[in-house]
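Input (structure):
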C-alpha cells in the first residue's frame, strides 16, 4: 500500500470529505500555492524534526510560516529541535522531503500543530507525492492528525 492509499483509507474510514488536485510536481509551499491558485497560508507545511533526545516529530504549520525553533522546542518539551536528515525522513515517513503529509506516516510519529491552521476553512497538503494535493476542512485535518498544539 502506498502512502497516498493509506491516507485515503484513513480519510474514508473517518468519513472525512476531501478533494484531489493533480498538478505539476511541486517541491515548496509557494510552488504548491501557485499550482493550486490558493494563498500560501492555506497550504500545509509538514516538517520532520529531530529533538535533542534523537526522537523524530512532525511539525504541521501553515505554508507561509517559518519555524520558531525556540518556541517549537519548548512546546515539544525539549531543549533543541533541528531538521531530520532526508534519509531518516524517507525511512520514517514513507516519502521524500518536500511532500511529507501531516498524518498517515509509515511509522508512528508524534504530530504537533500550529493552532493557526485550524482557523482556516480549508487547507491543502501533499499525500506523499509531489504531483497531487488533497483539500480538506482545516478542522478535519486536526481530527486526522490528532496533534498536540504548539
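Output (sequence):
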Amino acid at each position: 500500500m502506498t502512502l497516498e492509499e493509506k491516507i485515503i483509507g484513513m480519510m474514508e474510514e473517518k468519513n472525512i470529505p476531501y478533494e484531489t488536485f493533480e498538478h505539476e510536481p511541486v517541491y515548496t509551499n509557494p510552488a504548491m500555492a501557485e499550482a493550486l491558485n490558493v494563498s500560501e497560508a492555506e497550504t500545509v507545511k509538514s516538517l520532520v524534526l529531530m529533538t535533542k533526545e534523537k526522537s523524530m516529530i512532525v511539525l504541521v504549520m501553515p505554508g507561509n510560516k517559518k519555524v520558531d525553533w525556540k518556541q517549537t522546542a519548548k512546546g515539544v518539551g525539549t531543549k533543541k529541535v533541528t531538521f531530520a536528515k532526508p534519509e531518516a525522513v524517507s525511512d520514517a515517513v514513507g516519502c521524500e522531503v518536500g511532500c511529507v503529509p501531516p498524518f498517515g506516516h509509515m511509522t508512528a510519529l508524534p504530530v504537533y500543530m500550529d493552532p493557526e491552521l485550524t482557523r482556516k476553512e480549508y487547507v491543502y497538503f501533499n499525500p506523499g507525492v509531489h504531483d497531487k494535493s488533497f483539500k480538506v476542512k482545516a478542522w478535519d485535518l486536526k481530527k486526522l492528525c490528532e496533534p498536540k498544539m504548539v
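Notes: The beta strands are 19-22, 44-51, 56-62, 81-83, 111-113, 122-125, 132-137, 148-149. The chain has a mean pLDDT of 95.
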